Amino acid sequence: MSNSSQSTSAVDQHRRNGLVLGLRWSLGSGLLALSPLMGLGLARSALAKDDPVEHMMTSGKLRTMQDMLAGIHGHALQESQLKREGIELQLSILADNGNSVPLGVSVNSPMTPESHIQEIYLLSQRNPVLVMAHLQLGPWNGKAELNTRVRLAGSQKVVALARTNKDQWLMDSADIIVTESACVDASN
Amino acid sequence: MNARLIWPKTISKGEVVKVRLLIQHPMETGYLQDMTGHLIPRNVIQWVSCVYDGQEVLRAQTSSGIAANPFFDFYVRATVTALMVVTWRDDDGQLGELRQLMTVQS
Q1: Which among B29, B38, B49, B69 is the top mutation candidate for probing chain A, defined by the most A β-carbons within 10 Å of its own β-carbon?
Q2: Which of A131, A157, A162, A159 is nearest to A145 (CA)?
Q3: Which neighbouring-strand residues pair with B60?
Q4: What share of chain A is helix, strand, coil (3-state, %, to 5)?
Q5: Do residue A149 and residue B75 have CB atoms under 8 angstroms apart?
Q6: Domains of chain A (ranges plus CATH)?
Q7: Does the first or last residue of chain B, that is N or C, have fewer Cβ atoms within 10 Å of its Cβ?
């Protein structure tokens, strides 16, 4: 735990960056064009039209939050149900290779029989398959923390959802720039 | 199919230990082509189950969104010396299993 303060500041930095990108995300496409923050986005989309390689890399359709929630079967989830607290998605800001991107989720939960995390979903905004992994946990884990490596088909938002035994849904998301997509897919 | 489980050498009773699981698997997405331009059929691990002392401690349903040679690390509260049994199944119907004894100091 000696380096915890160091890692917290790195996470804070990540969060601040996430907030800026998150703001862009929440504004909707119409307003987005007016936003001064969109400068980067405009530059990127203009580039996508001119450069065939860039276009190929960003070809996958981006899902909206509603699309992503609708893709989780067995739960009629609404965006308003999600609490943006007590859960942290650890993802780097930039990945050179989308084929293997380290990803961590930690949920603040005592993991007791009375209060624990039952499931965690890892969702991708752009991958051909929405749910990258669905993980089932319980009080026997002692700690609601997981690490894995995911594939990402281009720059996108990654969402982690956790469901408590009291049916509360916690959500965290992170934006990631992927310079080399995991798959040049044939989906569109 | 090869797999590996790693945890600390000494574990005391009641300790929450970090378990690292690595499975050797290509996790073919089905979107990539081979050298002759034919699509390589999808073959990904569908689920992984970790059972410790008869209790399923982690169940992961995985898709092509998980990198080749899937790696998971998670935590388990070690209560007794018991077997950790990891099983998984892929799209080809291949089943894999790894059994390893977790020794807990009393």
Answers
A1: B29
A2: A162
A3: A135, B48
A4: 30, 30, 40
A5: no
A6: 4-178 (2.60.40.2470)
A7: C
Express each pLDDT in A139-159 by its tens digit: 999 999 999 999 999 999 999
Closest by Cα among B101, B100, B103, B94 to B24: B94
* Nearest residue of chain A to residue B65 (CA atoms): A132
Please give the domain boundaries of chain B with CATH numbers for all domains. 3-102 (2.60.40.10)
pLDDT digits over A104-150, tens only?
999 999 999 999 999 999 999 999 999 999 999 999 999 999 999 99
- In this prediction the pTM is 0.77
**B33 DSSP 8-state letter:** B
In this structure, are residues A126 and A153 in contact, taking their beta carbons and an 8 Å threshold? Answer: yes
Helices (H), A27-88: 28-32, 39-50, 52-57, 65-70
Q: Hey, what are A23's tokens?
A: 């703001």
Q: What band does A57 get if pLDDT is binned at 50, 70 and 90?
A: very low
The pair phi, psi for residue A18, each rounded to 5°, is -60, -35
Query: What is the phi/psi pair of residue A138, to 5°?
Result: -165, 180
Q: Taking CB atoms and an 8 Å limit, are A133 and B57 in contact across chains?
A: no
Task: Supply B89's token pair.
Answer: 């199944």
pLDDT at A75: 83
Which residues in B29-94 belong to E strands, given as ranges? 45-52, 55-62, 71-77, 82-90
Chain A residues whose C-beta sits inside 8 Å of any chain B C-beta: 99-101, 122, 124, 127-129, 131-138, 140-152, 182-187
Please identify which residue in the block is written with the tokens 């923390």: A145
The residue among A121, A130, A120, A119 whose CA lies nearest residue A152 is: A130
